[in-house]
Design goal:
The complex is a heterodimer of chains A (218) and B (156).
Chain A (H helix, E strand, L loop, with lengths): L2 H17 L6 H22 L3 E5 L8 E5 L14 E6 L2 E12 L5 E10 H10 L8 E8 L7 H13 L4 E6 L4 H9 L4 E2 L7 H18 L1
Parallel strand pairs in A: 6-7, 7-8
Antiparallel strand pairs in A: 1-3, 3-4, 4-5, 5-6
Helix pairs in contact in A: 2-6, 4-5
Chain B lengths: L5 H11 L6 H13 L1 E7 L8 E7 L3 H35 L9 H5 L7 E6 L4 E2 L6 H20 L1
Antiparallel strand pairs in B: 1-2, 3-4
Helix pairs in contact in B: 1-2, 2-3, 3-5
């Protein structure tokens, strides 16, 4: 290997980190993947004929949706990101990202992507309370890794799944690991691994699965 | 466990330097290499004629260690902008195309309701936008890293 190449990479990483420190952070790349899964969910919603409108943190229509790095409480304007207002088959929902929701044990969990009943979302914003698991119709746990997924992620996902007992939930990742897939499958869970922009077929498969499932639960 | 590949070792040392500030990347590379790889293994039990198959964990070879490091850098530094671009495309399509409750009339066709859709990722603590698609120098820097990583891959 050319020794200069390693120095070139390190030098470029150093200048990138100096110019865009927030971009070169683990939390940023994780969040960007969440937004990617969020946009796939949006596509699935359109495929089933749902009406989707972007809203800001004050529930007003917007053409510029803001995501924040940290998890958000639904009633806190300083930490609540924008969301998508969904209308489908006479009912209303919200597509949320990084939202704290109470599990069945009444412990707060952060859901990477979820679809929440709109009535509950409004009530929670008005009364400064957290939404409960019974109002969640879909959740996706998103994992972004530089290599294979560590096994503990599978175990964590199973724990989360037992707190949220709705039908449509999945573990989505940019990479894969047989053990994690085997573990989740064994417990009747669903995984969508190796979801990348370079593989349109995988995106289509994920969106197709999601559209079919959402048709049944929304 | 020690790293076998001296280039990976050197890379990890560099990333850990305070002036580089990418300790977390070094940790991810080392952590993945330390996990090793799971492979199939056949074995024979005493007194049994037929071999059985099981799974075992083996350390990566020196070349594989370098490939792991390249993959981590590619996933963490190069790929996020591609994910971002695809997300923007998917979201724009979803919001711009006519919604089911809208009447398809000449007004909507000639004059879209919204300006092109945009979304941004904000770092609350620093109060700054993390992804700025118009920041040409960031894009150029990431493209250079992508090229270097390609060259490094072809050298293995």
């Amino acid at each position: 290997m050319r020794p200069q190449l390693l120095q070139d990479i390190v030098g470029e990483l150093q200048s990138l980190n100096a110019a865009s420190p927030s971009l070169v952070q683990e939390t940023s790349t994780d969040k960007i993947f969440e937004i990617f899964v969020w946009s796939c969910t949006l596509k699935a919603l359109r495929e089933i004929g749902a009406t989707v409108r972007a809203k800001d943190t004050n529930d007003r229509p917007t053409s510029s949706l803001q995501f924040r790095l940290g998890p958000g409480m639904i009633f806190s304007p300083s930490t609540t990101p924008g969301f998508v207002h969904i209308q489908y088959d006479g009912s209303e929902y919200e597509l949320q990202n990084g939202l704290r929701v109470l599990g069945s044990s009444k412990v707060l969990h952060e859901l990477d992507i979820c679809i929440l009943e709109r009535g509950t979302a409004l009530k929670c914003r008005q009364n400064n309370i957290h939404p409960e698991s019974s109002a969640v119709r879909f959740l996706a746990e998103c994992k972004y890794y530089g290599g294979g997924l560590p096994l503990h992620l599978g175990r964590e996902y199973l724990g989360l799944s037992s707190e949220f007992t709705m039908r449509v939930k999945t573990l989505v990742a940019n990479t894969t690991k047989n053990e994690v897939q085997t573990l989740v499958k064994r417990h009747r869970g669903t995984t969508h691994f190796e979801l990348t922009p370079n593989d349109p077929a995988k995106i289509n498969r994920f969106v197709g699965w999601l559209a079919t499932e959402l048709e049944h639960v929304l | 466990m020690d790293l076998q590949n001296r280039h990976v070792l050197e890379l990890v040392r560099e990333l850990r330097k305070p002036e580089i500030g990418l300790e977390w990347l070094a940790m991810e590379i080392v952590g993945l290499i330390q996990q090793g790889k799971t492979t199939k293994k056949s074995y024979k039990e005493e007194g049994q004629k037929r071999a059985k198959s099981g799974q075992t964990t083996e350390p990566y070879s020196s070349k594989e260690e370098l490939q792991v490091a390249i993959n981590v850098l590619r996933s963490r530094i190069v790929d996020p902008l591609r994910y971002w671009a695809k997300s923007t495309e998917l979201a724009s399509d979803a919001f711009r195309s006519p919604q089911p409750d809208e009447h398809a009339g000449p007004r909507r066709i000639t004059k879209p309701r919204f300006a092109p859709f945009k979304f941004s990722l904000i770092d609350d603590l620093r109060n700054q936008e993390i992804i700025d698609p118009d920041r040409a120098e960031t894009k150029a820097s990431i493209e250079r890293i992508a090229t270097f990583l390609e060259e490094l891959s072809s050298d293995i």
